[in-house]
Amino acid sequence: MLIICIILIAILIVTGIILYVVHRYKLQRAKALGLPTEPEAPEIPEECCGQHQVCERDSLLAAVSRDIEYYDDEELDKWRGTPSNQYNDEQCALFREVLYTMQSHEVAGWVRSLQLRGIELPDEVKDEVLLIVGERRF
Hints:
mainly alpha, 51% helix, 0% strand
């Protein structure tokens, strides 16, 4: 049993060395031919490409993009750090006004922007946002 383990480890080490040498050779050859050695990052098209289970452009996660984009909503910055359950009806109406004056394809980007700016959506508006983004996905 010990001999089999030693043989397997030796095969793995030899395979690793071969793969490393082949990779280095391909990199050197690409440099010699003037080819790019690293793949270029793909651009996200205006319309969803269909290659992902969830379109990155429609993602509500702030981790997708670190760019803060304003949607004529600078007045919402004064609520940075306000918990989502602490908004009154007048403040919720301001969030709704911004929400319903934008195109449906901009909503996910707006939510990401709010997250990056430290602004929580009011609880009363969250369902409406999820409904709009959910409709775009199907």
